[in-house]
């Protein structure tokens, strides 16, 4: 195992313990959502600092991870600041009872750290590889990946901003968000999330990274479509009769 891999592994362990400890002190498991984006951002910069070649493509991909992570962490912090713990975590706290601390350590913080490491592969792997030889960087694929990333980031950022503005208006209480990007897709923020990670993976492949980096966008896509993204929100919103018309007239994912 290389020194760089050891350093990143040590960081992941320290990161897990840090945020778990904070969750115990604050009595809030939902700070794990903030740790998710910040962790990717820090790993991007740490792996870049450990890189033997600070080439432009590596800097671009690492910066892409940094921007995505910080934006998401700030968005979640602003959304949760001054409010009770997220309902999902409160439900787990009640369900787990006296074992909440053990289960939260493994099922929230350790699991999230492992997922975070896998999702970060398109950033980490190129940074820790040997410098690419002349002509190895595929500029066409790098450009396509960059365009996908920017498109996805704009979708995610604008959708989050539009939803936050909608929810902050008391006159919208009880209404279904269906304006702006939300008129085209029931989950435009998730659309942006998926697109941007496929873009980051494409930029990694453009630098000669092995196909294993595709595990990242595949995992993100599966999580959003099958686990903690769309299914969870759709189940919650389906209880609202007003949501039925929205479902009938708006795509669940694709904004077309």
Count of domains = 2
Classify the secondary structure makeup into a structural class: mainly alpha
User: How large a portion of the residues is in β-strands, by DSSP E?
Assistant: under 5%
End-to-end Cα distance: 46 Å
Give the biggest sheet. Answer: none
Oligomeric state: single chain
Low-confidence stretches: none
- If you compute it from the alpha carbons, what radius of gyration comes out, rounded to the nearest whole angstrom? 19 Å
Mean pLDDT: 92
Record the SSE blueprint.
Blueprint lengths: L2 H24 L4 H19 L6 H25 L6 H10 L3 H20 L1 H8 L10 H30 L19 H19 L8 H13 L2 H8 L4 H8 L7
Helix pairs in contact: 1-2, 1-5, 2-3, 2-5, 2-6, 3-6, 3-7, 6-8, 7-8, 8-9
General description of the model:
This protein is an all-alpha fold and 256 residues long. It folds into 2 domains: 1-131, no CATH class; 133-256, no CATH class. It is 72% helix and 0% strand. It is globular and about 55 Å long. The model has no long low-confidence stretch (mean pLDDT 92).
């Amino acid at each position: 195992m290389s020194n760089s891999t050891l350093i990143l592994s040590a960081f992941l362990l320290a990161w897990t313990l840090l945020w778990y400890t904070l969750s115990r002190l604050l009595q809030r498991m939902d700070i794990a959502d903030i740790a998710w984006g910040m962790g990717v951002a820090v790993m991007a910069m740490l792996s870049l600092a450990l890189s033997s070649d600070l080439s432009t493509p590596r800097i671009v991909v690492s910066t892409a991870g940094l921007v995505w992570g910080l934006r998401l962490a700030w968005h979640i912090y602003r959304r949760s600041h001054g409010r009770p713990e997220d309902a999902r975590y409160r439900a787990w706290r009640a369900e787990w009872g006296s074992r909440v601390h053990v289960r939260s350590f493994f099922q929230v913080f350790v699991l999230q750290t492992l997922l975070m490491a896998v999702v970060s592969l398109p950033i980490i792997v190129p940074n820790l590889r040997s410098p690419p030889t002349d002509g190895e960087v595929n500029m066409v694929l790098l450009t396509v990946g960059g365009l996908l990333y920017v498109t996805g980031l704009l979708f995610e950022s604008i959708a989050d901003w539009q939803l936050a503005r909608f929810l902050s208006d008391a006159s919208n209480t009880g209404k279904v968000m269906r304006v702006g990007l939300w008129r085209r897709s029931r989950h435009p923020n998730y659309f942006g999330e998926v697109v941007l990670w496929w873009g980051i993976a494409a930029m990694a492949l453009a630098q000669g990274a092995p196909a294993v980096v595709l595990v990242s966008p595949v995992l993100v896509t599966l999580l959003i479509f099958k686990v903690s993204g769309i299914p969870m929100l759709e189940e919650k919103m389906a209880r609202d009769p007003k949501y039925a018309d929205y479902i009938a007239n708006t795509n669940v994912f694709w904004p077309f």
